[in-house]
Design brief:
Blueprint (H helix, E strand, L loop, with lengths): L10 H6 L2 H24 L5 H7 L1 H16 L4 H28 L8 H8 L3 H4 L10 E2 L8 E2 L9 H8 L24
Antiparallel strand pairs: 1-2
Helix pairs in contact: 2-4, 2-5, 4-5, 5-6
């Protein structure tokens, strides 16, 4: 039995978002990780930090993406995780290949210019993630200060923090004094 297609989704898009596609992309990610490991050894870049972060982190992302995409094909998170790893590893491997071809003297390798072009495409992997607005500011009660969802873009003004926390009367300080957000002075012994 076939599942009924929603009216707003074309049949071809639904056919691509299948467990078989997720498995194929997962296998591609594993192959790219193997190529990354081999090329990092050949280019003398197989340091502890390159191997300890460059192999397990993409492996975990790809594995999580395959699991989510296989069990919930309409969930975009799984597909974003898999595609991020694939789109990130292709330029990494192309960079290793270009270094091998042009810097380390393996001039007989074909497709050197293609390696250089593919190396410049790594921003495509990060383009999968949506931008974060200033509206994503989340103040966690009991935390030392405001928490930003996607990295610290600076501390918001004290009045804004007080408003987000629910304080109706923000503390006013003389000019020149910085507010210590979330920290209270001890007044006792």
């Amino acid at each position: 039995m076939h599942e009924a297609q929603p009216a707003d989704q074309p049949p071809a898009a639904h056919a691509l978002a299948s467990p078989a596609t997720a498995t194929a992309l997962g296998v591609l990610a594993l192959v790219l990780l193997g190529i990354t490991a081999a090329l990092s050894v050949l280019t003398h870049q197989a340091t502890f930090l390159n191997v300890a972060t460059g192999i397990p982190i993409p492996l975990v992302y790809a594995t999580g993406g395959v699991i989510v995409a296989r069990h919930q094909p309409r969930n975009p998170v799984g597909w974003i995780l898999i595609l991020f790893v694939v789109l990130f590893l292709i330029p990494v491997d192309a960079g290793y290949y270009a270094a091998l071809r042009y810097r380390l003297g393996y001039h007989g390798l074909p497709l050197g210019p293609a390696g250089i072009v593919l190396t410049s495409l790594w921003p495509l992997a990060f383009a999968l993630f949506p931008p974060v607005d200033r509206g994503d500011l989340a103040v966690v009660r009991g935390s030392p200060g405001p928490q930003l969802a996607a990295g610290d873009r600076g501390t918001p003004p004290a009045a804004e923090v007080a408003r987000l926390r629910g304080d109706h009367h923000p503390v006013r300080r003389p000019a020149g004094q910085r507010a210590q957000l979330g920290r209270r002075r001890r007044t006792g012994p």
